[in-house]
Specification:
Layout (H helix, E strand, L loop, with lengths): L6 E7 L6 H9 L6 E7 L6 H12 L4 E5 L6 H11 L4 E4 L5 E2 L3 H12 L3 E9 L5 E6 L4 E2 L1 H6 L9 E3 H4 L11 H9 L5 E12 L10 H15 L4 H21 L1 E3 L3
Parallel strand pairs: 1-2, 1-4, 2-3, 6-10
Antiparallel strand pairs: 4-9, 5-10, 6-7, 6-9, 7-11, 8-10
Length: 261
């Protein structure tokens, strides 16, 4: 197999003791072997760290690096920390309760190399807390410009990959929600984003996920993203928030596919 360089897998973690090992295994099972996984635990108060460290010791897995925040700080701070520690030339994202298909890295890097794309995402499927398929496949536009990214957060975080030497170190402001969206907006200043039209990841829907938030909460966090992080004036921030609501509804009609398997 061609070695295209190391992939750094960025994984923030908080109270995911039920899922963290399955997530790590989905990375260990990759057909592309040159990777490191950087897990930043955000002061979990369950047994996440104990279970994770015991598993890594038992399996003698040296490619997984576990870091810990000094205090509970949120996903943005955790991802920023992991990105600063990353040694790979490729950056990929995987939250601590989500999963990858075994050939995810291999197929995505091949797609990027062949087409000279430096910022990409893939389709993903939704699963429940028991890893059972919920019958929905999520896709998106094949080509996302900076303008189109402002309209909606199309890429699922668990599917995104970018080339570090083309984009540079990405660091975002500490916001409680939409910090992944803030990253994509920042990266889109450097290059467009492209879709690999394959289902290569599984997103776990559970209580507390942003997809389960009420509309008012989503409006609030989108407005704060555009106003405080993107530093737009209030009227423009409101306009982009309304655009996001419109394209969010459009996504459900156009880019969500129902499957039986």
């Amino acid at each position: 197999m061609t070695d295209w360089g190391m992939v750094s897998v960025i994984t923030p973690s908080f109270n995911t003791c039920e899922y963290i090992i399955e997530t790590v295994r989905s990375v260990q099972n990759q057909t592309y072997p040159n990777w490191e996984m950087i897990i930043v635990d955000d002061c979990s108060n369950d047994s996440t760290i104990e279970i994770l460290e015991n598993y890594l010791k038992e399996t003698k897995e040296l490619r997984v690096k576990v870091l810990k925040n000094i205090q509970n700080s949120g996903a943005a701070v955790s991802r920023n920390y992991a990105l600063r520690e990353a040694k790979g030339c490729w950056i990929a994202f995987l939250d601590s309760d989500d999963l990858w298909m075994p050939d995810k890295l291999e197929k995505q890097i091949d797609f990027m190399i062949k087409n000279q794309y430096w910022f990409t995402y893939t389709n993903y499927r939704e699963i429940d807390k028991d890893s059972q398929f919920l019958g929905r496949i999520i896709t998106g536009p094949k080509h996302i410009t900076q303008k189109r990214m402002y309209s909606y957060c199309w890429p699922g975080c668990l599917t995104v990959m970018f080339r570090l030497d083309k984009i540079g170190l990405v660091q975002v402001k500490n916001i409680q929600k939409n910090n992944d969206y803030a990253m994509w907006l920042q990266i889109c200043q450097k290059c467009d984003c492209y879709l690999l039209d394959l289902v290569l990841a599984s997103y776990r829907k559970r209580k507390g996920s942003i997809s389960n938030q009420k509309v008012f909460s989503l409006v609030k966090w989108h407005y704060l993203l555009f106003k405080d992080v993107e530093e737009l004036d209030a009227i423009t921030a409101i306009a982009y928030t309304i655009r996001n609501l419109f394209f969010g509804a459009a996504k459900k009609m156009i880019y969500v596919k129902k499957k039986k398997y």
